[in-house]
Amino acid sequence: MSLLHALAIFGAGIAAGTINTVVGSGTLITFPVLLAFGYAPVTANVSNTIGLVPGSASGAVGYRHELSGQRQRALTLAVFSTLGGIAGAAALLALPASAFKRIVPAFIGIALLLIVIQPYLARALRSRRGRRGHDVGPVTAAGVFLTGMYGGYFGAAQGIMLLAILGLTLDDSLQRINAVKVVLTGLVNLVAGVIFVFAAHVAWGAAGLIAAGSLLGGIIGARQGRRLPPAALRALIVVVGVIAIVRLL
Questions:
Q1: Ranges of residues in the chain whose predicted pLDDT is under 50
Q2: Where are the alpha helices (DSSP H) in the chain?
């Protein structure tokens, strides 16, 4: 790995950690970068999943004020996220690499669609305030499990999916819900990453660079990330995602 490649992967990790903390979809930055440098799709996905774990941890620390008073809710949802993440990781390992190459372009397309409609989702969440429940119901639990399964398999836009599900079913502020989202997406990456360490091929150099970058990015996202121009951020993610689709096809 050349110095230029290492710096690019590290920079992508910073961007992904920041984006994941603010809204989600950082995988659409790091995954295409790894593809561009010649990593096989499944290896890139596995290494990316492991590398993004520290960014979620630092982001959760940055959101500790918003997490205050949500211990029981977070623990309940963590169970469903964990089970979903395990199921998704198992599916990735059980299915052939050719299936991943066929499925992931569609997943990236869905992720890009969510990126584009994210402002409308945010408005819908705000408009439903006061018409949602405070406790975790079966719809919330099922949605968190399925999102965790998706995240264990691939993960792009997992955060946006979670934000939509939690925002539409829980009566709380968007920032407090986003704090729970950071914890749950990080947990999915963690449990999937542990499985991948023992059962998949990991490009440790790339994973380490993403981990270092995402750790820094999580701090930036929790402190400063909300200042990023949303339209510019969405445009960048869409461009990178389209490049990834073209690369896979």
A1: none
A2: 3-22, 27-36, 41-51, 53-62, 64-67, 71-94, 97-127, 138-153, 158-169, 174-199, 204-223, 230-248
